Amino acid sequence: MKFYNTKNKKQQELEPLSGNIVSMYVCGPTVYASPHLGNARSAIIYDLLYRVLRAKYEVNYVRNITDVDDKINAAAKENGESISDLTERVTQDFHRIMAALGCLPPTHEPRVTENIPEIIEVISSLIKNGHAYEAEGHVLFDVGSYKDYGCLARRSVDEMQAGARVEIAPYKKNAADFVLWKPASEGDDESAKFASPWGIGRPGWHIECTAMSTKFLGETYDIHGGGLDLVFPHHENEVAQGVCAHEDSEYARMWIHNGFLTVDGEKMSKSLGNFTTVSELLDKGVNGDIIRYAFLTAHYRQPLDWNEKLLYDAKNTMDKFYRLPEIEDAAAKADDELSSYLEDDLNTSKAFAYINQQISDYNKSNDAELLTKLLGNIKFMGFLNYSVDEYFGRADDDAEIDELIAARKKAKQDKDFAEADNIRKKLDALGIIIEDNRDGSTEWRRK
Ligand code: AMP
Ligand code: ZN
By Cβ atoms counted within 10 A, which residue in 16, 110, 157, 252 is the most buried? Predict the structure, then answer.
């Protein structure tokens, strides 16, 4: 199978380091707020990649939880909540949302707070190897000590500095030097403070991922994923730390980056305020499979602009998936043609065109063997996570609809036609179509 590798800007055949085992690290959420749709797009893409990989290999998939960060400290203060309550609550919310979107749990989900000794160890190696220095309670990576700095983003140090708006500080040797360890600030919550050889403080963001990927996957591993926004500085800095701390290591061999979910052409982000959370959509009754489908219709490296039409179109296709007859325990399995599309840098548009073709073929032929293949393909892509009743929303409000229909019947019997008409309008607003039979009974269905 081949994927586009940001490192050499080429499609590259996957050649796992250890035969049939693939090691993959994906940067996970910073747990201070509920994930927005941009975060969800990224999570769904790596979930599909994981599913494609595990069909052929044993996969060790690590996605971290960043539970130490200035944004977390600020959010906890603002909410009047302890840091541990906030990070626990947001982590649970993240898990609920991942499940609703059909994302499988990774093999390991390490938290920064549980890996401080490992982080300290990597920082100590960097100091020992002459790639980091201590200044005013901080430990900084010395960018000038690493000649290949910029090898991933492929930009000059000057360009990178301009792009990253690096913090100028008098104690830095070079403005591009970045923080590995940062001293605690006055008023910091005790749970955000950790002891280290350089004083009480907390790790920088980039070093966490280097330390946790090394711990679970080794110094050199197969795949590293994340959004395009992470190429610089986050991933550039991860490589620098990994390669400089561990002699002869390559760090990640293949870098996969997803394009942005945009709003009117601009990246959806918390800081711009142009975001919609996944919870908001789920609470409105949008099914997680529909959101998943909407995001997978575009190629993962392309930008995708968010709008309601995307959901509307996705719902139409998902309705078709859920209208297929069920086969008990149909296994999630890709047939050869679907695999060939997915193993070609996750070509989801060809994959869905193929599935949609299979649906129309099935609707014409009613061929049982085709149905088994088709359901296998749909499930392989991570859909059909809900029962048909759940999906069509029958379970929750059937009783309410039956009551409204009974009330309408009574109104008609009482010759209160205005009331009967009102009830029909109410049902219409709920998306219910009713049909009166000649025997006086009423049938209903959803629009
Ligand atoms: P964050 O919690 O902001 O670090 O983001 C978690 C993951 O979501 C990272 O891999 C980001 O690159 C990715 N991400 C954030 N915003 C977007 C977006 N608008 N579109 C696609 N991916 C995004
Ligand atoms: Zn990371």
Answer: 252
Q: Give the model's pLDDT for residue 396.
A: 59
335: left (phi over 0), alpha (psi -120 to 50) or beta: beta
Measured in Å, residue 64 CA sits from the centre of ligand 2 at 8
Q: Taking a C-beta distance cutoff of 8 angstroms, is the pair 59, 50 a contact?
A: yes
Structure tokens at 220: 């050199």
Which atom of ligand 1 is found nearest the CA of 36? 16
Spatial contact of 39 and 245, defined as CB atoms under 8 Å apart: no
Q: Are strands 442-446 and 432-436 parallel, antiparallel or unpaired?
A: antiparallel
Does 369 lie in the same domain as 227?
A: no
Cα–Cα distance for residue pair 205/193, rounded to 1 Å:
15
DSSP string, 168-218: P-TT-SSTT-EEEEEEPPTT--GGG-B--TT-SEEE-HHHHHHHHHHHHH-
Are 46 and 94 in the same domain?
Answer: yes
Span from the CA of 330 to the centroid of ligand 1 (angstroms): 33
Ligand approaching nearest to the C-alpha of 257:
1
List the CATH number of the domain containing 172: 3.40.50.620
Of 218, 253, 211, 255, the C-alpha closest to 60 is 218
H or E stretch covering 54 = helix 37-54
- 190 and 285 housed in the same domain: no
Out of 224, 229, 234, mutate this one to test ligand 1's pocket (max ligand atoms within 8 Å of CB): namely 229
pLDDT < 50 stretches in the chain: none
Dist. CA 263–CA 253, nearest whole Å: 32
Q: Which helix (H) or strand (E) holds 409?
A: helix 394-413
Using a 6 Å CB cutoff, which residues line ligand 1?
27, 29-30, 38-39, 41-42, 226-227, 229-230, 258, 260-261, 267-269
pLDDT at 257: 98
What tokens appear for 439 in the block?
A: 């025997």
Which two structure tokens, joined as six digits, stand for 401?
A: 């609809």
Under 8 Å between Cβ of 54 and 254: no
**Do residue 82 and residue 107 come from a single domain?**
yes
Q: Are 280 and 257 in contact (CB under 8 A)?
A: no
Q: For 275, how many CA atoms within 13 A lie in the half-sphere containing its CB?
A: 20
Residue 158 backbone phi and psi in degrees, to 5 = -60, -45
Start-to-end CA distance of the chain, whole Å, equals 42
Measure the CA angle with vertex 337, ends 333 and 342; round to 5°: 75
Domain holding 371, by residue range, is 262-389
pTM equals 0.88
